[in-house]
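Pasting as-is:
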Amino acid sequence: MIINDIKANKLVSAATCIFMAVTAMLLGLSILLYASLADSIDSLMTEAKTPDFLQMHTGELDEDDVNSFSQQREDIEAMQICTFLNLQNSQISIGNESFENNMQDNGLSCQSSLFDYLVDADNKVIYPSEGEVYVPVCYRKEYGIKSGDVMRIGKEELIVAGFLRDSQMNSMMASSKRFLISEPDYERLRQLGSEEYLIEFRLKDGSDINAFATAYKDAGLPDNGPTITYPLIRMMNALSDGMMILVILLVSVVVLLISMLCIRYIILTQLEKDKTGIGMLKAVGISRRDIRKLYMSKYLILSVVGCMTGVIAAIITAKPVGAQMRELYGNAGNTGLIYALMILGALAAEGMILLSVSRLLHRTDRISAADALYGRGSFGKKKNLWLPAMIITATAMFMILVPQNMKSTIEAPEFVTYMGIGESHIRIDVRQTGNVRKIAGEVTEDIGHDNRVRDYVLMETGSYRTILQNGSSYDLMIENGDHSRFPVRYTEGRYPENDREIALSVLNAEEMGVKLGDEIIVCKEMKDGTAEEISCSVCGIYSDITNGGKTAKACMKDPDDATPVMWSIIYLSLADEDLTREWTNEYQDRYSSFESGVKVTLIADYLKGTYGQTIRNISKAAAVSSVMACFVLFIVMLLLIRLVVWRERNDSSLKKALGFTSSDIRMEYLKKTVTYILPGIVLGVFAGIVPGQSLAALLLRSMGAYSFRFIIDPLTVFAAAPAMIAVSAVLAAILSLTEVKRIHAWECLRAGALK
């Protein structure tokens, strides 16, 4: 009987099954991708033996001091010092592709001896032969590199032997990339770049990384460069793909709610059609419980089929969607548990839908056998069914706009204000050189004589020891300069105006437990060998997603301050914005020597280079979300309008008896459809911008981006997305209104007789 009912109502049964499958697929896909990503990252970091604490250092290094410190610490399991040979990107090319416009700090490394291994596609440690180079896997697709290509560094050549995974620097959010070569080649090429040291530690289980970092700083060990810890490495690895997965999860929750609403109307439509049959079952003595079981069995069968279809679809979809993730981090190891979690997620989605179905089927108890047999009564209140059409239209718009708005925001040049960077046209980095301060000064003087430059500012970053009000110490990466030029976005307060003020990134303020107005003591190393303590008031808290979101800003430029400058950045804007590309190319050529350590970059290119991977992932999620939104809306409108037509069948029959044609009635329904979907589109645009912005802010807060505001693409928001929604809804209405042809003029007479 159940199978016959499914066969007799193929369209309705298929629609129900599709909703169940789509819900199971999206929730299962998000769980599958998230669990695979987490497991892959953990497996890679375990196999590569990622350091717990890494101090990058440029300049002279006394290894004996580091060894002595290491021997005195009981929490150190292993220590090593690796070298990294920084290269000028303009001198690098592979095959026919130049790295001149590459935003990363690229360099050469040898294989580590104790830990922090560079591994191949099987997570096996690589040992290159002389004349070979292994390229970071993230560059394979970007530059179309293949094994056997020639890598040129100036006049030197190496053969690409394969690709490597770097547990520290896989993500494009990590600003450096290591190319692996043999030790003889490293010695031969050493003069082509500037050398940097990676001082790495593996700590024993249970050790406090923050306490170790403070002890390292207090010992006065080399620290002319950023400090990186295991949790920060793991977070950077997970962020770009993790954001895509969170968007898919958000969409899956929305689709679950829509599916429950749609299946509700499918059941109500079916019950209205089966009213006479239900009356007959009641008349012959079938209990209310058995009638509910009969219908529930049907939806249980559809749920099983939908769940199985959704799980299979999730597995198939995960392959192309997760391709980049697998290339960067490898295949997940614990596949049995991952698939079990995915199936449990799909079952949970089906369970919620079936619970909703069960509650709805209790409405069959409300109608008597006599009323059902004579077509009287109803299984629910005669609500306005056009209102749900408007709500679902708005929801579909929301599904499209949130991922699209996130994508347009991260792509926009204004997004730099969430990166601790002011909104300038161009940035010039001075890094990986023995005398950052001297070279940065020369570049600044050069720019000052260029009449095309409207405004510029030099920022110098150094590591300072700070003391909080409770007496605890904390190491801060402080960027010194005039922050009134190109100010960043402050969530609270303002930029520092004198040497007694300091601004902190949101993550630093939270970790240090300080707020606006609190005092912090900053310790400066003076040229005479003494240390000067300055009490600074926290004047501002700002959003930042660079350097792990942990930075600070001050204007303590003291000529007697001997604190080493780790790097300098010059931000500038031109009087004529149309000249930015030409100006950038000119200065790139001017500072293209190996020794200068100067990199000139358009802010737009910097964003693309740093967050290109994230943008591509969100674009994938946006495409999936748009397709799902249009598909779901199409099916929903198809079913909803069919239900409206069924409920108003007698009215339509009467109209035909009075002389109205099927075309007249269809046009009336079509006008009503447009009347309700237009407010739905307007509501959806509002929801996609305002509540959607709040949801996106929750995702970006994990990166350190606070006080988030959408930077929308007007063409997408006000034209493309509404057009997609309108076409889907109107097409569904046209198809569903073919039912009007099957309504006959004499039906109203029979309905009147029954009453």
